């Protein structure tokens, strides 16, 4: 485990390396406890660098067996080796030389799951961000691009399959039942994209003909016997390949494209060139084992990793500060893909919900950082919602500002100008400036400045003068180490809506540039005057969520109700209803804290009923509208003095009020949505299931709710319905015979399938209330649970600490104590997963004082542990700062 050196990496310290490595040949003799790695590196001194400059290579926990330079073994005084660094003190005078390194590593003992490790008897690698240095010494940084040739040797019976990046070149049998394979990747790549997989796996084969007519062989490798579960992933891959050609003109470039699913993986998946490695959760699916949400995630992640081939691999990042260059852009691309494959409006609402749930709290708390950070201690901790999701929103805003054609021209220029390079955010912005002739300097603050901007908006209508006015003021809140903020360029899409629901036009507008339905906010204050507006319109703001901001709108509830029923922009219509729900929940929270019964306006529940039954709206949209803001969303909008029990009570009360007011409509709709047709994971069918399942959630609050949910569970023919019913039983009817029976039946049915059992862990970890912490402790002793497996840890401990507000934030602090102890237990094996878990306490300062003290103590307790990893120390110290 890498302990903290305290070193802070700074963007302004970037310097190109003195040396390059244009060619890398690797030879692996695989063995679980002693894998022998020989690296033959062609090293080139950069023009102008003195011959005396030492060559300093990165390592991490390596055992060096030998160093040879240009065929000569180095004498002891010619180099210095530690497990974490190899320095060639006096490299040869020639500009180019060959360095041969031998190292030995133990994949079976690698529990951090970085570098070369074993998962389920399969050898696999994870090198992003700095895992390659756990395999051999190297210039392990993304601006060192090298052409790799890889030879892998292993016993045939243990590892019949030998895969690496690029195209297969050669394979053959050796003595003693051993065999080998050679792979060559002609595209220069950084070390973080290196991959190797070896083992016994089942294969699903496919093929794709590219736009220029080349045949690409596709392979998805999974645990033997699970091939049937990879069909959806294969289909998603082919659709992704076709979409990238059509939407961005990007063609695949190798003869083969392989995906391997492994069961121990720190993140979702990894875009290694020509050999993507996936967490098996994002590959394996059928109706029996996967929910509709799982299918949608698989489609999105398969696409995401594939799209990295151009945005990340062909054009990579100069340094890790530029991570959003590949991640923000690739998330944007996968969002667009899913929007095209499914319903655009529904997809957009789901994206915004995710952004608000994960990125907003990050941006508003102690871990806030710019989309392109300027400092880091541990890069693993910067694979964040800000870099990914806000990074994607920034790309979307560029498209909004420039328009679709100019945006596409900019992307074309980006691919043309930077192919084969390690680029920066400045390079990316420059292509859009060049194609549009615009200055994006103020816009660039979206990359450089942390914090969620807020717009305060008020409106006035002067009937006599036929003038409608918007007063808009921007502010960007202070964030850690950035107390003063500069004014941003915010593209605010909007519409004026008349009493008949139709758009209201105007004659002239002054006070801001208004262009194609977008007000360009650039100053602190804008008074935007629309002339020729005779009737007072309702104003629909941030349509399509054109900018990742918060809005404080002085708007009458009548206007919100009107927009929730009539806004022609589907996103804003959803937003209007969601704002009404949030406002009602916050009011109820305050009533509860004041010792009163919460009360809700009857028209809110009525509107919920009307939306539920509105056949003009897609079922998936209706389901999203009916989903009440989550407890954490409500907490975020309240801001401080959070008592999660009061929020929970407010939310339950509103759910009950809506259910009671709409019992008949909901029941009739619930019955009419019952579906006996064969299962299909398509978006329309999934939308109908989503609507029916949210209706079940409401109906379960009424008489015989447990019975209804139990019947739903028992007759379910797919995992979406089964898991939804189980969650309803566990959350709302915990401890009843119905809930206990369903939980037991689920466990019995899926006992042998850890991935499915994760849902069972997850549902139980999410059960609201004080008892859950004990239940989670008990489940950690379940035979299917393993603290070494990231999926198990995330399902049980991650769900408890980041999604169970009342359980985790138990007033006596027991949730926090369990959390501190468990994070440290996970950290012993896997610091990266532990650090991610630890972010669950990032909003501790918004809690009410009693819980705040206890949460802080838990963080201090983690911080006191000896030999804390760099990963965990970084999170704990920033959270407490
Ligand atoms: N680049 C991957 C994410 C990823 C990052 C780090 C990892 O290390 C454990 C693994 C994966 C992506 O964006 O999909
Ligand atoms: Zn990515």
TrEMBL record:
Gene3D superfamilies: 2.60.40.1840, 3.30.2010.30, Neutral Protease Domain 2, Peptidase M1, alanyl aminopeptidase, C-terminal domain, tricorn interacting facor f3 domain. It is an enzyme of class 3 (hydrolase). It catalyses: Release of an N-terminal amino acid, Xaa-|-Yaa- from a peptide, amide or arylamide. Xaa is preferably Ala, but may be most amino acids including Pro (slow action). When a terminal hydrophobic residue is followed by a prolyl residue, the two may be released as an intact Xaa-Pro dipeptide. Residues 232-443 form the Peptidase M1 membrane alanine aminopeptidase domain. Residues 558-881 form the Peptidase M1 alanyl aminopeptidase C-terminal domain. Residues 451-552 form the Peptidase M1 alanyl aminopeptidase Ig-like fold domain. NCBIfam families: pepN_proteo. Belongs to the peptidase M1 family. This is Aminopeptidase N.
């Amino acid at each position: 485990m890498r302990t903290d050196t305290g070193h802070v990496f700074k963007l302004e310290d970037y310097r190109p390396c003195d040396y390059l490595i244009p060619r890398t040949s690797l030879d692996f003799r695989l063995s679980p406890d002693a894998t022998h790695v020989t690296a033959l590196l062609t090293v080139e001194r950069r023009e102008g660098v003195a011959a005396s400059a030492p060559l300093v290579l990165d390592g991490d926990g390596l055992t060096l067996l030998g160093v040879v330079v240009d065929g000569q073994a180095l004498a002891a005084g010619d180099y210095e080796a530690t497990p974490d660094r190899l320095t060639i003190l006096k490299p040869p005078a020639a500009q180019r030389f060959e360095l041969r390194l031998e190292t030995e590593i133990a994949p079976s003992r690698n529990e951090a799951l970085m570098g070369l490790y074993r998962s389920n008897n399969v050898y696999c690698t994870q090198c992003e961000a700095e895992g390659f240095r756990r395999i051999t010494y190297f210039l392990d940084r993304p601006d060192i691009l090298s052409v790799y040739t890889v030879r892998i040797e292993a016993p045939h019976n243990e590892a019949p399959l030998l895969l690496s990046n690029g195209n297969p070149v050669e394979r053959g049998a050796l003595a003693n039942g051993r065999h080998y394979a050679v792979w060559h990747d002609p595209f220069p790549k950084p070390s973080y994209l290196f991959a190797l997989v070896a083992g016994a796996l089942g294969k699903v084969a496919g093929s794709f003909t590219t736009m220029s007519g080349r045949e690409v062989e596709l392979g998805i490798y999974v645990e033997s016997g699970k091939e049937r579960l990879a069909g959806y992933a294969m289909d998603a891959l082919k659709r992704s390949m076709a979409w990238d050609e059509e939407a961005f003109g990007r063609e695949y470039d190798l003869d083969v494209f392989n995906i391997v699913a492994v069961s121990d993986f720190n993140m979702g998946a990894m875009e290694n060139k020509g050999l993507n490695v996936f967490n098996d959760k994002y590959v394996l699916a059928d109706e029996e084992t996967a929910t509709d949400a799982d299918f949608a995630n698989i489609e999105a992640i398969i696409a995401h990793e594939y799209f990295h081939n151009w945005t990340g691999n062909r054009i990579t990042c100069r340094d890790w500060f530029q991570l959003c260059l590949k991640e923000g852009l690739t998330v944007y691309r996968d969002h667009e893909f899913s929007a095209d494959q499914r319903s655009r409006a529904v997809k957009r609402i789901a994206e915004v919900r995710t952004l608000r749930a994960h990125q907003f709290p990050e941006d508003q708390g102690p871990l806030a950082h710019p989309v392109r950070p300027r400092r880091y201690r541990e890069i693993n901790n910067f694979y964040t919602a800000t870099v990914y999701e806000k990074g994607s929103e920034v790309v979307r805003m560029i498209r909004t500002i420039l328009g679709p054609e100019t945006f596409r021209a900019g992307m074309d220029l980006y691919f043309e100008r930077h192919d084969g390079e390690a680029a920066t955010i400045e390079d990316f912005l420059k292509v859009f400036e060049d194609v549009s002739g615009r200055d994006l300097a103020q816009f660039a603050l979206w990359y450089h400045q942390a914090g969620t901007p807020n717009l305060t908006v008020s409106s006035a209508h002067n009937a006599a003068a036929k003038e409608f006015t918007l007063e808009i003021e921007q502010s960007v809140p202070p964030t850690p180490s950035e107390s003063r903020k500069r004014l941003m360029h915010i593209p605010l899409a909007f519409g004026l809506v008349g009493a008949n629901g139709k758009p209201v036009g105007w004659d002239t507008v002054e006070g801001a540039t208004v262009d194609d339905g977008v007000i360009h906010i650039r100053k602190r204050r804008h008074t935007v005057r629309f002339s020729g507006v005779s009737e007072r319109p309702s104003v629909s703001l941030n349509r399509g969520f054109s900018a990742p901001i918060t809005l404080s709108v002085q708007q009458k509830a009548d206007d919100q109700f009107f927009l929730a029923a009539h806004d022609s922009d589907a996103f804003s219509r959803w937003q209007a209803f969601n704002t009404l729900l949030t406002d009602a929940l916050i009011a109820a929270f305050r009533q509860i804290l004041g010792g009163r019964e919460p009360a809700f306006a009857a028209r809110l529940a009525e509107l919920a009923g009307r939306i539920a039954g509105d056949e003009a709206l897609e079922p998936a949209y209706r389901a999203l509208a009916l989903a009440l803001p989550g407890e954490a969303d409500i907490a975020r909008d309240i801001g401080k003095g959070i008592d999660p029990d009061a929020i929970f009570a407010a939310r339950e009360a509103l759910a009950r009020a809506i259910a009671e007011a709409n019992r008949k409509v909901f029941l009739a709709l619930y019955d009419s949505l019952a579906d006996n047709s064969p299962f299909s994971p398509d978006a329309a069918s999934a939308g109908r299931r989503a609507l029916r399942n949210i209706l079940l959630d409401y109906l379960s609050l009424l008489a015989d709710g447990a019975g209804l949910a139990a019947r739903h569970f028992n007759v379910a023919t797919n995992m979406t319905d089964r898991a939804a019913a189980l969650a309803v039983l566990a959350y709302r009817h915990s401890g009843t015979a119905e809930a206990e029976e369903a939980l037991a039946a689920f466990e019995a049915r899926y006992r042998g399938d850890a991935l499915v059992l994760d849902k069972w862990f997850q549902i139980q970890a999410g059960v609201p209330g004080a008892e859950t912490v004990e239940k989670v402790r008990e489940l950690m002793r379940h035979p299917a649970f393993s603290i070494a497996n990231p999926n198990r840890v995330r399902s049980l401990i991650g769900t408890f600490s980041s999604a169970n507000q009342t359980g985790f934030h138990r007033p006596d602090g027991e949730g926090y104590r369990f959390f501190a102890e468990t994070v440290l237990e996970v950290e012993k094996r896997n610091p990266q997963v532990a650090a991610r878990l630890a972010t669950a306490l990032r909003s501790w300062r918004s809690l009410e004082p009693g819980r705040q003290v206890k949460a802080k103590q838990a963080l201090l307790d983690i911080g006191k542990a000896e030999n804390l990893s760099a990963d965990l120390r970084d999170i704990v110290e920033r959270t407490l700062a």
